[in-house]
Amino acid sequence: MHNNCKKLTNMKYKTPTGKKKWHESTIRGILKNEKYKGDVLQGKTYTTDPISHRRVVNKGEEN
């Protein structure tokens, strides 16, 4: 088990899903999450048809 995983497990912090044992992949997922990093980019998709709710990737077409 990775050193940080051991520390979090020994400190009895629960994972985001409520488990007691931490894994390296859980920590990696948190650190890569754009919301935790502050890299949130809104407007990645937009709705082309409000009736069918069809969404497409925004490649600069919309603000």
Structural class: alpha+beta
Going across the biggest sheet, name each strand in turn: 1-2
Q: What is the domain tally?
A: 1
Mean pLDDT across all residues, rounded?
86
Largest sheet: 2 strands, antiparallel
What is the C-alpha radius of gyration, as a whole number of Å? 18 Å
> Care to count the β-strands?
2
Order of helices and strands: HHHEE
Unreliable spans = none
| Percentage of residues in strands | 5-15%
Number of helices: 3
Mind explaining what this structure looks like?
It is a single chain. With 63 residues, the protein is an alpha+beta fold. The chain has one domain (3-57). It is built from 3 helices and 2 strands, in the order αααββ. It has helices spanning 3-10, 24-32, 34-37; strands spanning 45-49, 54-57. A two-stranded antiparallel ribbon has the order 1-2. A hairpin with a 4-residue loop joins strand 1 (45-49) and strand 2 (54-57).
Keywords:
2 strands; two-stranded antiparallel ribbon; alpha+beta; 63 residues; elongated; 14% strand
Short note summarizing the structure:
The protein has 63 residues and is α+β, with helices and mostly antiparallel strands.
Can you lay out the helices and strands and say which pair or pack?
Layout: H1 3-10, H2 24-32, H3 34-37, E1 45-49, E2 54-57
Antiparallel strand pairs: 1-2
